[in-house]
């Protein structure tokens, strides 16, 4: 993760300028995240919030949201752009947050650089901080096979939805819906999203 942190820190200003506002969000993503967040009944964690645009948008809609990111420059930008939201520097693999403290976790492209053998660390952390029955919305790059590719910042991974769904189930989540989106052009890359819910049996084991 150190190399990923260094890469994003080096390009934080460029990333925030190009992708750090809601104008860069695909309309389908906006609709999906908005509808999901509107159903969350309690505080929401924007895990891997980047420059904080999703947190700011949700806060303006009345959602009690908190953002965390590994990159200090992103957190600094988010605090300046969205002063009404609490942002902290934190690692999704080791969240410094109490168990059962959130009703929802938004992980929008925040796990794309996790190697397949390591992704359970973050999923287990999401399960720990969620309340029983809490929701998770995960955005990711998708493809027909689990494979790495050269992302502009650092190596990233494409996940078939069924393979990532298996990882979520192993972490104690029930998969509710899966969504995919493709384009006739090379950009944007094929996109996937999974809505999941923390099972009550998993929550009881954690607590």
What features would you describe in this structure?
The structure is a single chain. 40% of the residues are buried. The chain is globular. It has 8 helices and 9 strands. The chain has one domain: Rossmann fold. It has 207 residues and is of the alpha/beta class. The longest helix is centred in the first third of the chain and has 12 residues. Strand 2, helix 5 and strand 3 form a beta-alpha-beta unit.
- The parts where pLDDT drops under 50 for at least 5 residues are none
Strands in their spatial order, largest beta sheet? 3-2-1-4-5-9-8
Mean pLDDT: 90
Task: Please count the beta strands (DSSP E, at least 2 residues each).
Answer: 9
Structural class estimated from helices and strands: alpha/beta
Relevant CATH superfamily? Vaccinia Virus protein VP39
Spell the H/E element sequence. Answer: HHHEHEHEEHEEEHEEH
Number of domains: 1
How far apart, in Å, are the first and last alpha carbons? 29 Å
């Amino acid at each position: 993760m150190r190399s990923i942190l260094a890469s994003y820190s080096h390009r934080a200003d460029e990333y925030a300028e190009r992708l750090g506002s809601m104008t860069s969000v695909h309309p389908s993503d906006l609709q999906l995240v908005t509808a999901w967040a509107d159903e969350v009944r309690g505080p929401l964690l924007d895990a891997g919030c980047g420059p904080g645009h999703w947190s700011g948008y949700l806060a303006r809609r009345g959602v009690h949201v908190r953002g965390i990111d590994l990159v200090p420059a992103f957190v600094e930008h988010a605090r300046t752009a969205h002063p009404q939201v609490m942002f902290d520097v934190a690692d999704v693999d080791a969240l410094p947050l109490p168990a059962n403290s959130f009703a929802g976790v938004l992980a929008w492209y925040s796990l794309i650089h996790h190697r397949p053998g390591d992704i359970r660390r973050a999923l287990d952390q999401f399960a720990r901080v969620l309340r029983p029955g809490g929701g998770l919305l995960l955005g990711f790059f998708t493809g027909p096979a689990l494979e790495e590719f050269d992302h502009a910042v650092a190596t990233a991974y494409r996940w078939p939805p069924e393979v990532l769904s298996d990882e979520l189930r192993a972490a104690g989540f029930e998969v509710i819906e899966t969504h995919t989106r493709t384009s006739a052009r090379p950009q944007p890359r094929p996109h996937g999203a999974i809505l999941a819910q923390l099972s009550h049996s998993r929550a009881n084991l954690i607590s």
